[in-house]
Each structure stands twice: as C-alpha cells, then as structure tokens.
Amino acid sequence: MRSGAMVTRMEAVVMGASWGGLNAYSRILTSLPAHFPAAVLLVQHQNASADNRLAWLLRRYCRLPVISPRDKEPIRAGHVYVAPPGYHMLVDRDRTVALSMSRPVHFSRPSIDELFFSAGHIYGGNVIGVVLTGANEDGAEGLDYIRRRGGMTLAQSPASSEAPAMPEAAIAKGAVRETLDLERIGPYLAGALP
Amino acid sequence: MNSEQTISDDQVNLEDIEIRLLLEAIYQRYGYDFRGYSQASMRRRVLHRLSMSGLPSVLRMTEHVLRDRQFFVTLLNDLTINVTEMYRDPEFYRAFRNEVVPILKTFPFIKIWHAGCATGEEIYSMAILLEEEQLYERAMIYATDIDKNVLTAAKKGIYSIHAFKQYADNYRRAGGRHSLSDYTTARYDSVIMDQRLKRNIVFADHDLATDQVFGEMHVILCRNVLIYFDRQLQGRVIQLFSESLDMGGFLCLGTKESLRFSGNEEAFEVVNKPLRIFRKTQLHRT
After folding, report:
1. Residue A18 catalytic?
2. Res A9: pLDDT
3. CA distances from B210 to B72, B81, B205, B207 (A)
4. Hey, is the C-beta of A95 within 8 angstroms of any chain B C-beta?
5. What are phi and psi of A166, to 5 degrees?
6. pLDDT, greater one: B286 or B268
7. Could you give phi then psi for residue B152, rounded to 5 degrees?
8. Is A88 a catalytic residue?
9. d(CA A32, CA A36)
10. A127 - beta bridge partners?
C-alpha cells in the first residue's frame, strides 16, 4: 500500500504549514537537490500583506528558485512556488498557477485545502502531499483527497511538530500514508524523486 | 487507513464535463458567462455550493439552477467574488497620486472606468482622491460590474462601521490629505458615503466576458478581476481595455496580475511595475 502509491513520475510536491512553518520549510528545502525533478508548491498561513516575505526568507535555504507567483505563472519542475499572502493558490489544468481571493478556508487565505484539492484534481497520482506543523485542521481534507486520487501523502510526526494539531488532524482523518519526523521529510522527498 | 474508495481520472473528468454543462446552462438561461473563467477556481466554488446544497451531483444541481432562480442567485453569489475594501493596497493609491495624477492634471476632462467595482468601496476611494487633487470636477467615473446586486450596494455606498477603522488606516497610508470621516456620516452600525461624492459616478452592469468597448477612457482600473479568467479570456479583456483606452491612457491591475501571460504586453509600457500601473503605448514605432 505504501509504495503502491509511487507509480509514475511525480510532477509536484505540495506542502502546507501554519505555526512553526518557517522552520519546517527551511529544514525541508535545504535537503532538496538543485536538479529536483518536480515542482514544489507551498502554503504558509500568514496575514495578508503586500510582500511575500516568506519567499524571500526561504531563498536563503534553498538551491531551487523560490518564486512568489503571479496569476497564470507556469508551474515548472525544480521551482518552488510560495502562495502569496491574501490569495488562495491553485493549480490549473494547463499547469499554471491560479490565484483567487474567494472566502478564507479554516480562517485562512491562502488555505492548504484549496491547494491540495486542486493539486489532487490535476496531478492525480503524480503528486506528494505533505501536512506539516500547525495549529488548526487545514489540509486534512485536501490531503485525503490527494490520497483518494492515488497520490502519496505524508505528515510531519506530531512529536517533531512545533504545533501538532494539523498533522494530528490529517492522521485522524486517515489521509496519511506515512508519518515522518521533520528531519526525514527533505531526504525522503529527495529520495522519492531520484 | 481510511477505506473510502479512490477517485479515478474518469470520475474527475466526468465532474469537469458536468461543470462545463452547468456553466453553459447558466449562460443560456440567465446570460451570465462564466465559461471562460479559470477552471481551478470555478471548480472549487461550484463544488463548495454542491456540498452545501446536499445534492448528489453537479448534474442534479444544474437542474435546480435551470428551474429555480433563487437557487441560481445563491450560486451566483458564490461564483462572483466581491472581496474589496476602501484603499485596498494603499501603496497603489499612493503611487496613483504621485505618478498618474500629475499627468491627469494636464487633461481638460478625465474619464475613468472601474471594471469590476463590486460593492463600490474602491470607487469612493478614487472619488475622494480626485477630490483632494482638485480633479474631481472634471472627472467622470464609470463603475461597472457583472453582478447587479452588488451594483445596488455600490450605489448606496453604505458600509459597516466595523471595517471603517481599517479603511481609515488605509486612507492615511494611501496619502490621504484629511480624515476619511470628513467624507462620511456615521449612523448606527453604518458609515454612509457623502452624497456629494456620487455626483460624477455612473453605475452600469457590464460583463467583461461578453460586452463591448467602453470608449475613450483615460484610466481603466480592473484590480483582482482578471485572476478569475482563463488565459484566453484574459487576452480578450486586455484587448478590450486597449481598445477602450485613449493613447497614453493608464491601465491599473491587481498586484498579482500580469500582462505577460495573456499576450498583449507590447501594447503597454510600464509606469510602476510592482503596483501594476501600465500606460497604453503612445506611438507605434516602425
């Protein structure tokens, strides 16, 4: 069951975090090689503001280009896309970013569920979804959708999370195929996509 | 592990077809054209309404939409996104004041089209800004939206007092010269925009997906509307804006919107890149 999900070529890794996310993302992105063969899309809960400070911060930890995408930005392998504050970030059919200001989900915009549902829709089994540290339940339903579409699903272990509620909610939902400590997630992704 | 069954590509494709049929039904029955909207965000909003409705499929929901106008109005409310605030992105208004207004001051008459004005907060923001720059007497603001219900609210110009503190803060950051409360009257839980501000505003319903050129504008504001369109419709609308603008007219988009992906980039030059202020190219170089 575990490895059964790893079928064809992975197109994307989608991740979501809230409380403690900056630390988690910097640890994970540090482990990714410069020739990482999939696109990385990530959501961090944060207040709406004009600039995408997170994208700027993560550039220091990452060998891949880190982008704060505009609407319709093409999604390319080996690039990291950070959802801009105040917008939901979705994957559209032609592999471009669709931004939206529709209602907040779990009090959050960007919302992890919104990214995960659209990624599950478009990528089917060719996506890895990761729920990281956080203090609410955003991401659990979307991760379960990715699982039901045949994608690989991971959660940061609650013990290694600064705020365990978010990975716990995903695990309780039955959405998670594999639970990993924070320090193992980056190497796992690097190894899963050789 | 959850035992719920998997969702195949076939099921997902079927759902996509049903959503397209729903949008076609809406267009034929009510004339609202969402067929060129971004699939990803349309899909999310349709499925949200589906799960709230308790109906078993998009196809069944389409039956309700065709026969029940009230149900359609509920869905319409989900499909059109009316997020706005006064002086949203204050730094945009500051840049408009500093970089666009000096040029507008050289014009004898100024026509401004605000496409997708929603409930009107940004219309009144612009009216106040022009008033403070002594430009409003010679300005006309054409405020349009696809949704007649929000236009009614925009005309009234009555907003919740709870948002007002944020608006007043935005106003200051946007370079406002007085106090926002100078332009409003408070009543119970509401703030009412001064009647005087409405003297040079014309409200009209207009669908960017189907309707035509709105002529000889000096400024077009269309902020955070294009993100809901697919690339083809974005291209059509940018073309429409280009044809609606006078030479040297200004186009202002949302801060995450781009001309680059819809292929009309060369018709415009950049005035302020991060704040997405463009200007229709004045001369075609040969």
Report:
1. yes
2. 81
3. 20, 18, 12, 6
4. no
5. -70, -50
6. B268
7. -60, -45
8. no
9. 6
10. A12
Closest CA to B121 of B161, B153, B77, B76: B153
Distance to chain A for B21, nearest Cα, Å: 17
Statement: residue A65 has pLDDT above 80: yes
**CATH class entry, domain A3-192:** alpha beta
To the nearest whole Å, the CA of B178 is away from the closest chain A CA by 24
> What part of A 169-188 touches B (C-beta under 8 Å)?
173-175, 177
Which residue in B81, B254, B258 is closest to A72 by CB distance?
B258
Closest in A84, A98, A124 to B9, CB measured: A124
Any B CB within 8 A of A96 CB: yes
- What is the average per-residue pLDDT within A81-108? 94
User: Which residues of B touch chain A, with CB atoms under 8 Å apart?
Assistant: 1-7, 9, 12, 38-41, 43-45, 81, 83, 89, 91, 224, 226-228, 230-231, 234, 254-258, 260-262
Contact at CB, A100 and B258, closer than 8 angstroms = no
Backbone angles phi, psi at B239, to 5 degrees: -60, -45
Q: Measuring CA to CA, which residue among B179, B177, B183 is closest to residue B134? A: B177
Confidence of residue A50 (pLDDT cuts 50, 70, 90): low
Apex CA A111: angle with CA A154 and CA A86, to 5°? 140
Measured CA to CA, the distance from residue B55 to residue A171 in angstroms comes to 28
What is the ipTM score, two decimals?
Answer: 0.89
Kindly name the residue from A18, A31, A157, A160 that is annotated as catalytic.
A18
Q: Whole-angstrom Cα distance, residue A122 to residue A149?
A: 10
For chain B, which residues make up each domain, given as ranges?
9-79, 90-280
Which two three-digit tokens encode residue B210? 């189907």
User: Where does the pLDDT of residue B10 fall: very low under 50, low under 70, confident under 90, or very high at 90 and above?
Assistant: very high
Retrieve residue B86's tokens: 């006064």
Using one digit for the tens of pLDDT, what is the confidence trace for B148-159?
A: 889 999 999 999
Tell the CATH topology of B90-280: Rossmann fold (3.40.50)
